[in-house]
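Two quick folds needed for the group meeting slides. Do the first one here.
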Amino acid sequence: RTALTSNGDFLRMLGQSSLSLGGRLLNATDSPISIARSVVNILGGGQFVSTTPEALVQTTGGSLTLAGLASIPVEGGTLNFTTGSFLQMSSPDPEAMASLTVDGGLLHSSGTPISGQNHFLDIGSNAHVTSTGADPAVVLVNSPLTIAGVGSFTTEEGTASSPFGNFLNICCTNSMTLTSPLLLATDSPLTVAGALVSVFGGGQLISTTTDSLVKLVGGVHEIGSGTFSGEIEIGPQVFTMPASLLDLRGITTDAAGLGTDPVLQTGGTVFEANGATVNLAGSGNAISIDTALLAAAAPIVKLINSTLNTSADGDPATGAMHLFRSAVTSLGPVFNLDNSVLTVQSGPLLVLTGGSNLAVNGDFASLINGSRITVVNGPLIFVDGINASGTPSTLTVTGGVVNFGGTGGNQVIVNNAIAPTAVLSGLPVNVGGGGSAIAIGPSPIKNPALGTVSINGVLAGPGPHTGSLIQATNGGQVSITAPAP
């Protein structure tokens, strides 16, 4: 019950230092904690090992405030950015990795409001985190978390600034390996300027759990206000923040021009909301997979008694989920809704470009117990283009477009002014030039008595239709097997 204030880091490790703990690093009850830099900062070849099966840091009540400011003189002006992370790691030497190994989780907070002004878990160059505990790396119970950083560049002519701050930021020849989920937040509203998970530049996130990697239970969450489509230059720095839920960006490509970096590996659902409302903001996507390889063993998005609203300011060309030069396999469904609502407020639900390949072994979407997917302005699926290696963007689904179930009353509602060129198995589609093709089997809507698919208010069927459910252009390929029951 003692206040704790630090104008720097709570723990800083430099050079070839090492530390081994058999207990918690910090256990605070009803204590206001204020740290300007990081709770844990490992720089250079520091090695930190914790053998306790409990969380490295536990807070009950009180508060945790991570907030500071740093300024760096650069050519033409001053680069300013807010500080305040839970974990920060990096090393300039690939032969001397910064390392953190814990037998438990990283943080368990109950009844503790938390705020940070930089990436919350920031794993930089030549760093590695290993957690072998059964509990999620971060557990929040009745602990609201706000991540709101600001980067700015000041010259004689004025200041340009941009918000930032990811929950997990992994960059540049580094990795995080877990035997558990990454985040479980129960009745803990998240307000995050950037992405929940961002892995790029050679980074990798591996979890062997079969549970959901990120799970939000209860609460209203506001995520992605600082995300944007494209790049923003602030002085000498170039900022890229394309997605709010999941941002995966690899580097290497194969002969087909597709990413080969397994940026994310996990055995369960990637993102789950249960009894929660998630509102996304910014001009980026909800999910962006760029030059990467992903094998999804479970739904990428799972909603139970929840609402997910993508940003009304999102890029309409790339929609809610965008794959670019990426190869993704999914056991299906990709989207799994149970008594839930998913509203795509800008562009399609799914966009494939740059020769991307999404192979779904099963149904594309599952809706049960009165669930609804609404696409406000765009097709449900858009597949476009052939990359420089001659590889066409391709969607392959062995099941149906949607599988309805439960108590019925499910809906897929799509609105757009894309005139259909054909109606295939009752679904209006638009096939553009360049060798584009769409093939759909006899039963794309499974259990039609339990739900409806409509385009501009007209139910799937012979029509007439004024909009399209699926669009393929510039060589894009779509094959939906949809076998008869």
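Then this one, please, same format:
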Amino acid sequence: MSPSRHSLLLLLTCACALVSACVPGVQPSVPLDAGSPPVAASTPDAGAPVAPEAPPPPPPDAGTPEVDAGVPELDAGIQAAAEPAPRPPLPEPPGGAFTEGASWAQLRARLSSGAPIRAVHLGDSEIAGDAVASRIRAVLAERLGDAGPGFVLAAQSYSYYQRAGFRVSSPKGFTFRSALDGKKGRVLGLGGMAFDAERAGASLSVRVQDVEGPCTVRFHYLEQPRGGTVAISADGKPVASLSTGGDAEAPKRAQWDFEQCPRSLSLTAARLPVKVHGWDVRRAGPGVSWSALGIVASSVTRLVGREGAPHLVKSVATLEPDLVVLGFGLNVVGRGWFESITAAEEKNLRALLEVLRAELPGTACVVMTPYPLVERFADVPTQSDLVHRLVERLRPVAVEAGCSFIDREALAGGPARALQWRTAKRRLLSTDNIHLTPAGADVVGEQVANLLMFHAGVR
């Protein structure tokens, strides 16, 4: 190699080394003698001693996941992902929608203790269809826990009767009776409703839905002189044979505990007479069960006048409620009869609450008036003022008795809301201007549930 070419090669080699040292990420190369063959870097010199290979690090404990201590942000992200998302705060209800009665403190204390809350909701056709009540039930259960679906009638009382959590059969072989078609003082039992067996061997069944694990089943019936016998089955297997005989007419119940809640409950009238009411399915632990008992075309006046306040309260007491809600009024706020029956409604509500507070002193009570309604004047839809006038009559009666009061017209935003509900794209008030659509029932039910939780201290 000539001296000039040798000098040029040395110059290029130094330049490459300088660039490698100055440019980040570029590893300096090892110059090789142009006359020497390349040697693989992984092949040690045969004449040099070979250092022993270091043993591999011990594997980490399989039960202890490795966490990079140098990345605290990663740790925080893992912990945040493991924690449940916080619940949104409950909306504060409009002023005037809730008036607290003396008994409300008992419900608040029970809720704070973690004990289950059993509610009984009495009412008219709005409650018989279970639409509003089912939404109340679902919202409370999602937030506070599910203590079971509660009470269901032994069969369909009306063609549109339904209860979320159950499937009921038609009353074949039985006759449905309500307080509205019986004579004054007649004992019918829970909510003023019952089913009379027409023949021996007649049976009724109920399907229980979405209840996993253990539960308690209660069967409600009427005890009466010279009563008959009823056979009880669960999932097709015999459970008990009950005599319905007793010294006097009185609502009674029988109870069984199951490690796995039955999917079906059946009763058969083995010997007449037999008068039955229905089933109550309960779960242990914290949570809420909401039992709805509604009679079409009823009011406090009609129910108390036919059934009698003592009999009605005695039947409700067999459900051992922590809360009783009276949700009547749709059959009172008609323009043609409002003035004539409002005084009677006020009088009978006072009598019913007096008995209720005396017989169930540890039970909270709530009186609830209707949502905004529409009237028609000269065939023109107009917001009704009758709901507000009913509120003015019944609120003092409820609070005087120690019961809380819910003004659902105020809760909805006032009387003008009815016209908005009637004309909204997603209509909330039906074409009869009285009953709610399914969408309206969801809205009103959620409003009531959120109001109850808010004033019970849930946030």
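Slide caption for protein two: The CA atoms of residues 117 and 288 lie 5 Å apart.
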